[in-house]
Amino acid sequence: MKKPAEDRRNQIVEAGLALLAEEGLPGLTQPKIAARTGLRQSHLTYYYPTRTSLVTTVARAAFDAQAEAARAVIARISSVGEAAAAIAAVTGRHERTRVLVALNQASEREPEVRQLFNDLTKILHSEFAGLLMKLGLPATDTDVEMLHALFIGLSVFDLATCRPGQQERSRAILDLLFSRPTSQALFKTAASQGRPGRHQTQSEF
């Protein structure tokens, strides 16, 4: 069984995640978390004495959830068409994008959050590389970074514009990226430049 202190900490973190999803970084304040959890601010600071400790803990929970969600989505993909549709659907989940954008802002002042971002990037790159290989596409470092950058760009653009039909447009863009022969031209960029891929070995000569 969870101890009361652990329950309180989890309650605070969940409130922080909800506020980030609803209001962005400005919403992550002690008064708002205290109001949402029913705790006094003095009790809140008992569990998280500094804003840094609170933001870092909330960030870790957000990034863990993001990594698990990515693994779950990618595990269900078995074709290029499914990949474009599944990734496009994720780009439309504004609450997740809003949380990551807010934590990106926080990382400018919080080195711990920046390190967590770097850790998440490594995980996502590994998952994207596995997806590309599963689809029979090249998975060089550049290929993976391009897919990741496109995913982030589409997610932020969707959040910023909220245009009707944006998910369909995102899927069309991803279809273009994944489809042959276009994908062959795009995904072989790194190889043509002589850069070793994430799952390629350096020549011994």
Report on the architecture of this protein.
The chain has helices at 4-23, 30-37, 41-47, 51-75, 80-91, 94-107, 111-134, 141-161, 166-178, 182-187, 189-192. The chain is built from eleven helices and no strands. It is 75% helix and 0% strand. The protein is an all-alpha fold. The chain has two domains: 1-49, Arc Repressor Mutant, subunit A, CATH 1.10.10; 55-192, Tetracycline Repressor, domain 2. α1 (4-23) crosses α2 (30-37) and α6 (94-107) crosses α7. The radius of gyration is 20 Å and the shape is elongated.
**Given the structure, what is the number of helices?**
11
Mean pLDDT, as a whole number?
86
CATH class of the largest domain: Mainly Alpha
What's the CATH superfamily of the largest domain, by name?
Tetracycline Repressor, domain 2
CATH fold-level label of the largest domain: Tetracycline Repressor, domain 2
Main beta-sheet annotation: none
What is the CA–CA distance across the termini?
58 Å
Give me the secondary-structure category: mainly alpha
User: Would you identify the CATH architecture of the largest domain?
Assistant: Orthogonal Bundle
Give the ordered list of helices and strands.
HHHHHHHHHHH
Report strand %.
under 5%
> How many strands?
0
**What would you report as the Rg, rounded to the nearest angstrom?**
20 Å
Kindly give the count of domains. 2
Principal-axes shape call: elongated
